[in-house]
Protein 1
Amino acid sequence: MNNTNPKRILVNALSGIGDALMFTPALVKLREIYPDAQIDTLVMFKGVKDIYTRLPQINNVVFFDFMKEGAVNSLKFVLGLRGKYDLSINVYPSNRAEYNVISLLQGSKKRAAVRYLRQDKKNLGFLNNVSIIEEDSRHNVEENILLIEQLTGKKIKDIPPLQFPLNEDDTNFAETWLENNNINESDYIVGFHAGCNTLKNHINRRWSPENFANLGKKLITDKNAKVLVFGGPDEADLKSGIVQSINSERAFQVNTGSMSQTAAVMKRCNTFVTNDSGLMHVASAMKLNVVALIGPTNRNYIYPWQTNHIISTINLDCAPCFYYSPKPLTCTRSDKLYKCIKDLSVEQVMTDISRLEGGR
């Protein structure tokens, strides 16, 4: 579907860091196909802004906090974009009704998005006039790439890795942080991310802080590891609680001023153990060994892209039960709610770490 090449393109990256990162391979190809177009992005999370402002494929990053600004100011802002773009693209899986309405109100003649298999009509997917239908067997990166193929009429053979370039300031910050905490080149480092998005009941995708703490103790005792605990500003109590529970001078809470500084420190990790979260995808972009702790989520959507990884899971018959939809995460088991993540043992994760690292 490729008539006149668009001159002005707006990418609506209004969901979180992970979704934004999983669109970056599509951004690379979009820029290759439309080298002369103005490509802007609209974001509402500062972590996404931090990543997108450093991508050479993007001309401008427009930041607007829809949740903080409220309905009236948000409507005024979106209407202020009318007539400025020929094409708008919703980053997959941001195809809920509010995102589709925002795209419509922006006034682009072409509006591209991946349509949900479930509840698409309820989510006003028909408001988009360039689309593909999602498949549960495809990764989010692949969905975005196929949408670009549909939009441009160009077949894409080679899909790039996730894009998150670091600069000298980021590297200098990481080197200073590591030096201040006496972390040397010879140290074996394991990173943790115990958080994830809490919206729509997704806090139940988390492995427990107690499990992370016990894993940290075991890594320190058995492998002489140093453990770095990462997370955003809203996860400060979670991070500090795990470090306090590990109760070792070899466990560290990582506090930074930006997503790029976080990524730069993460890059030093030999292995990264994480819930299904934005930092899981940052770890993928940094090409780390990733142990992904997956319970109810369809792993096909979100497995660590183009990096050495292992999915740590207990493979229940009822999993996966969470697919993309506006419905909150729920569990219908009668024996134990969210058994798929709660019964994932520290011993299994330790085994998976060793398997991933080749028996270290």
Protein 2
Amino acid sequence: MSIVISKEKQAGDLINDVQKLSGIDIRSCLQCKKCSNGCPVTGLTNVHPSDIIRAMQLNVGDKIFNSDLIWMCASCETCYARCPMKINMAEVMDALRVLSVQKNGPKQKGNVPLFNKSFLRTVKMFGRTYDIGMIAAYKLGSASLLQDTDKFPMMLLKGKIALIPSFQADKKYTRRIFGRKLGNTQS
């Protein structure tokens, strides 16, 4: 993503919106690019984490939502571990996802937003992911009900998927996490 700075005033202030949602001070980024150098998905995306931060610092507006990194970020926090300023890019990406949905941002290729929503819904319900529930929600949303069903019996036999969800998670703790910053906007 090339950054184009124009003289026109951009609508809104994305950096403040992201900071409000994530609690991360993006202005403190030094642009050392350690986040980009350690990111496992940058080879698959059209932009790097440091580019996202720089674009917000320069207030280039909603063009950031055109980046596929927002939806492809694995939230592995490698960037956070490497960052000398302790900027948690996973939190920033979560905030950008929320803002992209709120602002009806461009749809990304594939069904990453649907997968993300299905995953978070099962975590919200059970306190941890419930694979069959997540797969069912994803399959219904993507209208690909029978695709990959041949893999299910082997995964079940190898114990990779549980038939019933685990109810051992602390529900109060889970509610507190989802009620925190981003949970009320992702249901």
Protein 3
Amino acid sequence: MFLGLRTVIYPAKDLAAGKAWYEKMLGSAAYFDEPFYVGFNVGGYELGLVPDGTSSETYWGVEKIQEAWKELIANGAQPKDEPKNVGGGIWVATLTDPQGNTLGIIENPHFQIS
């Protein structure tokens, strides 16, 4: 079901400073830059910064998020944030695995490993 790790999102209390630091460290500009999210393509993987986060989030790629959501719940995961479209045909959701870990899943038709 999982296609591999796809996205990590870090909280950035000062989004502009976080963006500047990662642009310097990565040697490239953010490809997505909005007040609610700054996104970088790092070797085909997503590094996201959000101003309102409290902890890091990691998302596993899936082909069909609704099917993955149902299968994970059927196998003991607890729903946290139901699948939602975040734009551009990209869907995200989070669950809690049986060990209490947050498990993010993402359906992203634009994802390509470079």
Protein 4
Amino acid sequence: MIILFNLALGGYIFATLSYLIFFGNGNKKIRTLARAAIIGAGVMHILYTVARMVKAGHTPITNNHEAVSFFALAVTWGYLSFRWRYRVQNFGVFVSPIIVALMLVAKFSSQAVMELPPALQSLWLPVHASIAVMANGFLALAFCGGIMYLLQEREIKKKKFGLFYHRLPSLEALDDLNRHCLAVGFPLMTLGIISGSVWAKQAWGTYWQWDPKETWSLITWFIYAAILHQRFTAGWRRRRAAIMAIVGFAAALFTLWGVNFLIGGVHSYAG
């Protein structure tokens, strides 16, 4: 089973290196190779996730290795699904290193298949956890778009058209990328919180306990709600939206990892 994970990791690394080479020399054959590699790695990753689910007897998203691996899978297929609809120049150059970083974290986390705690023995596990992680996947794409926007804007403001100017999309295209990713990620985050509340009612008899992870999930939700509200009412676009997409993703990462390792609580089973 672990060979599938290693094949996926190797494919992602190869895709990342290929994207970086393409970014430097513009050889379209290298870009095609990178795209094929990330699709192949994504397929291997799905096979690994299914194999682990069969072995564990439940959705493999209940410890740090599984959660981070699933996060990487969500980013991968979120990126691929987005790419099939939109054309964003060199988007893969910024997304693929994040996938590799997540996979390396999963690689060096304990890969033991753990017995499912009683509170997690529910059909709500695949529903709530999968939706929440997929939301983070699209928020990661918005984060990448924010980084790309700030890099492009910096060169335009300085009027020094160097490494990024001719290789990145226009500022308008990057702002649209940010908006589209948030338009998918925020509703998924909302569904994740709602499904988690329903599951909490079933498991513990209350919809909300103000557990640290619940609290930080709500904080993160308010950050993204504010971003979208300001976009539609106060015209928050471009630079402000890019910066807030980065800030929001930092909050999402803290909710995913920081709470587990620094605060704890009833949701810290992934730590």
